[in-house]
Specification:
With 290 residues, the chain is of the alpha+beta class. The protein has helices spanning 29-44, 50-57, 61-73, 90-120, 163-169, 174-184, 197-210, 252-272, and strands spanning 48-49, 77-79, 85-88, 123-130, 133-140, 213-216, 223-231, 237-246. The chain has two domains: 29-87, Arc Repressor Mutant, subunit A (Orthogonal Bundle); 99-272, GAF domain (Beta-Lactamase), CATH 3.30.450.40. Helix 1 crosses helix 2 (50-57), helix 1 (29-44) crosses helix 3 (61-73) and helix 4 runs antiparallel to helix 8.
């Protein structure tokens, strides 16, 4: 583009039903209790037996056991080999690390995004994949009166049709790409959208070879976008940047300069994040898992 919820939980005990929503705070009791247990484990600094967790949380042992079992099944709580004590699971660390990384990514990227915005005078984006959804973390708009108005929410299911999405997809293992497609599909947003898996895989191969992705009116009619992947200190792709412009301004010379500017911005950001690949040319036809 230019210019009444219900909760059903399984559990037991002599307290109120797990899925009950309290009138005063409109919170779901079972969620409150699960978070209480996580906070108890976090504050303990050591493994705790079921009885101790129940005592500290004020819950009966049966309710506590049901909640801990659910949390353990999802990786938020770990259990000792003998099964007699509990501790915080690795999923907590994954979530914490991911959140910190995203905050840091925006903070670190912003000076370079502003530079790219000034250099190209076009709309600039910073995006990541959260699960199988493309999420835009930052947008800097073009100063031109006629500019690209980004539909950030609409891009969630459009990784296959956007430059920022394809810049990330290109470096995922093929099985993970298949999972994204299976969940999100290959929706045709315009007549130019790639809706065939074989064609998409070939396009992603070119992204890896060239070091940039191109959305040529695939998501929005009349809009051209160039993207490039950002890597972290392990060399894994953690996000991408994109630069969008109206098709009427995307002449060959301007588009070539934009491709170069976007690639350079991604390289600098990757270097700032300590990527060992930042200063090395990409090898064609290789896929590195993120």
């Amino acid at each position: 583009m230019l210019t009444k919820q219900t909760g059903i939980d399984a559990g037991g005990g002599d307290d109120k039903p797990f899925g009950q929503v309290t009138r005063a705070s409109r919170t779901i009791q079972s969620v409150d209790r699960a978070l209480d247990l996580l906070e108890v484990l976090a504050s303990s600094g050591a493994e705790l037996p079921l009885g101790e967790i129940a005592a500290r949380s004020g819950l009966n042992s049966s309710t506590c056991h049901h909640l801990l079992s659910t949390l353990a099944a999802r990786g938020y709580v770990g259990q000792s080999r003998r099964g007699r004590s509990y501790f915080l699971g690795t999923k907590i660390l994954e979530l914490s690390s991911s959140r910190v990384r995203q905050f840091n990514l925006v903070e670190i990227a912003m000076p370079e995004l502003r530079r790219l915005n000034r250099e190209t005078r076009e709309t600039v984006h910073l995006a990541v994949m959260r699960g199988h959804e493309l999420t835009t973390l930052a947008i800097l708009e073009s100063p031109h009166p006629i500019r690209v108005a980004t539909d950030a929410a609409g891009k969630a299911n459009a990784a296959h049709a956007t430059a920022t999405g394809k810049a990330i997809l290109a470096w995922l293992p093929e099985m993970e790409i298949a999972r994204v497609i299976a969940e999100k599909g290959l929706t045709a947003f315009t007549d130019e959208t790639i809706t065939n898996i074989a064609d998409l895989m070939e396009d992603l191969r070119l992204v890896r070879r060239n070091g940039f992705s191109l959305d040529s009116e695939e998501f929005q009619p009349g809009v051209i976008c160039v993207g490039s992947a950002i890597r972290d200190h392990l060399g894994a792709v953690i996000g991408s940047i994109g630069c969008s412009m109206p098709q009427m301004r995307a002449g060959d010379d301007i588009l070539d300069k934009t491709k170069q500017a976007v690639r350079e911005c991604a390289r600098v950001l990757s270097e700032l994040l300590g990527s060992p690949k930042a200063s090395q040319p990409e090898q064609p036809d290789t896929v590195r898992p993120t």
